[in-house]
Fold these 2 entries.
Entry 1:
Amino acid sequence: MKEYLFNGDQKMEDLFYKKMLMTAPFGYAYHRIILDRNQNPVDYEFIEINEEFEKLTGLKAANILGKTVKTVLPDISDGEFDWIKHYGNVAINGERTEFEQYALPQDKWFSVQAYSSKKYFFSTIFIDITKRKQVENEKQQMQAELFHASKLATLGTLAAGVAHEINNPLAIIVGAVDIIEGRHENLEAQDLLKSTQMIRTAVDRISLIVKGLKTYARKDMENCIDVDAHAVINETLLFLRGVYKKENIEIKTKLDAPYFRICASKGKFQQVIVNLLNNAKDAFTNRRNGLIQIVTQTCDRYLVIEIIDNGVGIPADCLAKLFDPFFTTKAPGKGTGLGLSICQSIIESFGGEISVTSKTGTGSTFKIKLPIHQDK
Ligand SMILES: Nc1ncnc2c1ncn2[C@@H]1O[C@H](COP(=O)(O)OP(=O)(O)OP(=O)(O)O)[C@@H](O)[C@H]1O
Ligand SMILES: [Mg+2]
């Protein structure tokens, strides 16, 4: 085949392959790494680039060949990604690499492959993926908006219960103020102190509830951080207990897991707990002695959280569709059917999984498995 193409002419063969590379539909560049005295990569030189590379980066061969990247793009080290160190590893150790990265100088996203066929030299292949990244970003933003809208809708249904929960400490404050006002002339210092202490405790409780609500209503912009799952569950119950008490539903917790730190967004994790508790609450229509149990334990390297209710249960034919978006058995206007699908995407984004077992007439158990973040 080679003979047929080039008649044994090595020069023609070289030219042919070079032209193929120079006109290829992907950006191609050939470089030499530059090391300091300690053999650490500090810069790299442009030896060859193809036409597509010029188009993608806006850099022209005539201006950059023979020059180093720091001369051509002085901002190269400004972003978080260390291009020089990354390529240094390829050129020195011969390790092939593939990554997606934002390039600050071009304001573009690139899919990059880098490999070395000769020590201290390396080739890079660039594909512009900016459009795909924009679509992904828009999708993520839309999902965040949807999650937040669903959160606010849930918050609306909780408002009455939360008000009830705030009413109790308010009544205590009013009582204590009555005592101070009514007997202020012959109030003993000890009684005065007792009343002000009661006010302090009640005010602290109200501010905790308000704080919990504010965290819940906030838009979650944070990525995964180290979160104490038990603390989030307790904080959530602080503003939810009243809602359930009002409807004769008791919530019991058995948070026994010795390891309970997870890598999560606190607000999103809280959203999952609230969604599952809300579903359990709705499963008690016309039932008495409603009981919801939240149980945690550790299993291998996972934190297992179970939310167990003794509500109406879920018919077998619904179980398979339960996590589908818009699947709901609630009356129009009562539920969007998005709660569980949101729970599932949140839990999966934390590297975990969510499952359900249920028996009609007996109740349901939702089980969340999340990787433990730290053994502390
Ligand atoms: N603990 C539960 N007990 C009984 N049925 C449940 C339970 N949890 C979920 N379901 C069933 O799963 C369906 C889907 O739940 P999902 O949370 O996705 O939506 P929804 O609760 O109907 O609506 P929304 O969450 O928007 O209020 C519910 O309509 C209900 O039929
Ligand atoms: Mg729901």
Note: The chain has a mean pLDDT of 89.
Entry 2:
Amino acid sequence: MSDPLHDQLRSAVRALCADFGNDYWQAADQARAYPHEFVDALTDAGYLACLIPEEYGGMGLGAQEACIILEEINRSGANSGACHAQMYTMGTLLRHGSEDQKQRYLPGIATGELRLQAFAVTEPDAGSDTTRIRTFAERRGDSYVVRGQKVFISRTLQSDLMILLARTTPRSEVEKRTGGLSAFIVDLRDAHDRIRVNPIDTMINHESCEVFFDGLEVPAANRIGDEGRGFRYIMSGMNAERILLASESIGDGLYFVGRSADYASARKVFGRPIGENQGVQFPIADAYMDIRAAAAVRDEAARAYDAGETRGEGPNMAKYLASRAAWKAANVAMDTFGGWGMASEYGIERKFREARLYMVAPVANNLVLSHVATHVLGMPRSF
Ligand SMILES: Cc1cc2nc3c(=O)[nH]c(=O)nc-3n(C[C@H](O)[C@H](O)[C@H](O)COP(=O)(O)OP(=O)(O)OC[C@H]3O[C@@H](n4cnc5c(N)ncnc54)[C@H](O)[C@@H]3O)c2cc1C
């Protein structure tokens, strides 16, 4: 059943995205340029602050509405990857940040004066095993001094603030391997002489970087919640991240299906539309149904998240199903467009590359299978 407010939101985001067509995204992709104009337009319209409560200047909406925004962005052919962190990091700050932190940062984020676009968890030696991260924040009086290295930290150069996960107690000294990790808000504007940032060239235009921390001082007042409980806080933020990125995949999937159905209906070969051939139309219909099924699981997870659910089952399943549905639709679009799928001007090959990311990030799909096998079905852990 459709909700009139959700329908209005969809139409408004669609209208904004219509000003940023394939030419815009194609040019940004080819130049490896950050889409500032698009991100500014989203910020000015308030969408990147949709999860910030109204008392701090945001829209005060929930995960369900954030899902609609990101889905519509990707469905239009755009790439939410330029700015999605401002939404998915919000869960950690809103659910676990102090009132002082919310007062200090949320109003600035809501107006666009401050950008919270960087989320730093992954490290080269730890990979998917987050509990093995080694970046260390050592307490010294009223501050922590951070040393270590992160990798694939997206939009570090386009952000004023970063949410950082670091060890505050060595792994060998904690009872549970998830203990001894803490989360911090890092003000990157003060950090220039103590961090080094090297962009990583990737197959998509994603502004990902290696980040080296060389004795960066972070005030203790910027630690989120209790020392040593950061893994828990980051995980609750990650549930939001999985639901929101599932929405991007659903948007990608609908983009591929829409483009494929249109092209298959218009393109004539052997004297008739290629879409009359069931070998062409059935895979498009099949991909569409997978996307709808993933969207139903995503909707359930988003509703539960808004109602306070903290378990990872729904968000993980939504992310897994949506990323696979989008990837299937991407391949169907490639087949439908024939050689033109590979021509940059059509946009399909760019979206094909972008859609592939979500099979790996923010969590590799094998790790989701492991989560469901062990946490949901109760089977023994393999690691
Ligand atoms: C473009 C891009 C942007 C990113 N942005 C960010 C960001 O902003 N912030 C951030 O913190 N991270 C970011 N990441 C990192 C991303 O979250 C990781 O790449 C991802 O979590 C996988 O980690 P890894 O690359 O180290 O792979 P690995 O952990 O080395 O895994 C490699 C492969 O082995 C498989 N594997 C590993 N262990 C097991 C196991 N026990 N059982 C079965 N299979 C296993 C995985 O499924 C995967 O297929 C980004 C990555 C990319 C590519």
Note: Residues 301 and 309 are 9 Å apart (CA to CA).
